[in-house]
């Protein structure tokens, strides 16, 4: 789930909501809306909860990912980790897939809806309480994908930016909604999970955790809702983010499977270079300038 969002983000996201519902959204790192700034996230949350289009997008992506398992297993040189995230050759390692959790496997739109209802903002305390409530539901197609992977001898690793403090509650939520979780292996790797010999400046950076999986497994596929679920990038602006993703175009839809997240993400703050201390008017102006007319 989100890193704390800028107090102005909900207002800034308002101009993006209609674009999102037209199919323009991409996933990214999490930020929460501000209290008292209107229903900026309303359309996004409504789309996530009520639209059949949302459900069919998820089913389609997971069906496509499932269809790649056979080819990935058959090719001993197939690997879905970037070279920088791999410490050793993958050829003879057992297979795994890496999936994000929030808005990838588990649906947290009820938490977002509560923020709208209460006209309040994301806060670490309320988010942790939501995680401990274990009330997130499975997203369409997600359980079936995970079960198909396990049935073929593939371990599913849940690499999440939920903190490691809520690991047990998250695993319980996953199991209760039907997801397979391997016993005797650390398959939930949350923010703050220590990886020997690897450090990151930003705890939300998943590269060390991907590297840890790669030390023991050949990664067949990755599934997520933001760029950081697949590779780490310091790109900020929309143009920079597109340029960072471009070298991996052939991997998306083959080894990497991206899901939509219209509710939150760095895509929303990219037009103003993630300068969350900017006044809301300046944020909105930057977003307006980034649009085509």
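^ Assign residues to that structure.
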């Amino acid at each position: 789930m989100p890193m704390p969002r800028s107090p102005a983000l909900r207002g800034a996201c308002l101009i993006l909501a209609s674009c999102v519902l037209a199919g323009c959204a991409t996933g990214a790192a999490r930020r929460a809306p501000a209290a008292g700034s209107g229903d900026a996230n309303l359309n996004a949350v409504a789309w996530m909860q009520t639209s059949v289009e949302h459900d069919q997008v998820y089913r389609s992506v997971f069906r496509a990912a499932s269809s790649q398992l056979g080819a990935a297993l058959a090719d001993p040189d197939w690997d879905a980790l970037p070279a920088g995230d791999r410490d050793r050759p993958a050829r003879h390692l057992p297979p795994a897939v890496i999936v994000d959790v929030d808005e990838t496997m588990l649906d947290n739109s009820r938490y977002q809806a509560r923020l709208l209802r209460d006209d309040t903002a994301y806060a670490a305390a309320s988010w942790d309480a939501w995680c401990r409530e274990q009330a997130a539901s499975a997203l369409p197609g997600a359980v079936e994908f995970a079960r198909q992977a396990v049935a073929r001898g593939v371990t599913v690793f849940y690499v999440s930016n939920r903190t490691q403090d809520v690991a047990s509650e998250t695993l319980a939520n996953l199991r209760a909604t039907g997801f397979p979780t391997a016993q005797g292996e650390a398959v939930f790797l949350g923010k703050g999970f220590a990886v020997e010999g690897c450090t990151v400046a930003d705890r939300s950076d998943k590269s060390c955790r991907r590297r840890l999986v790669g030390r023991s497994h050949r990664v067949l596929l990755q599934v997520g809702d933001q760029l950081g679920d697949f590779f780490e990038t310091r790109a900020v602006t929309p143009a920079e983010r597109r340029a960072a993703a471009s070298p991996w175009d052939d991997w998306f839809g083959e080894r990497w499977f991206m899901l939509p997240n219209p509710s939150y993400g760095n895509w929303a703050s990219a037009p103003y270079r993630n300068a969350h201390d900017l006044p809301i008017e300046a944020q909105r102006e930057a977003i307006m300038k980034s649009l085509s007319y």
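The chain has one domain: 9-290.
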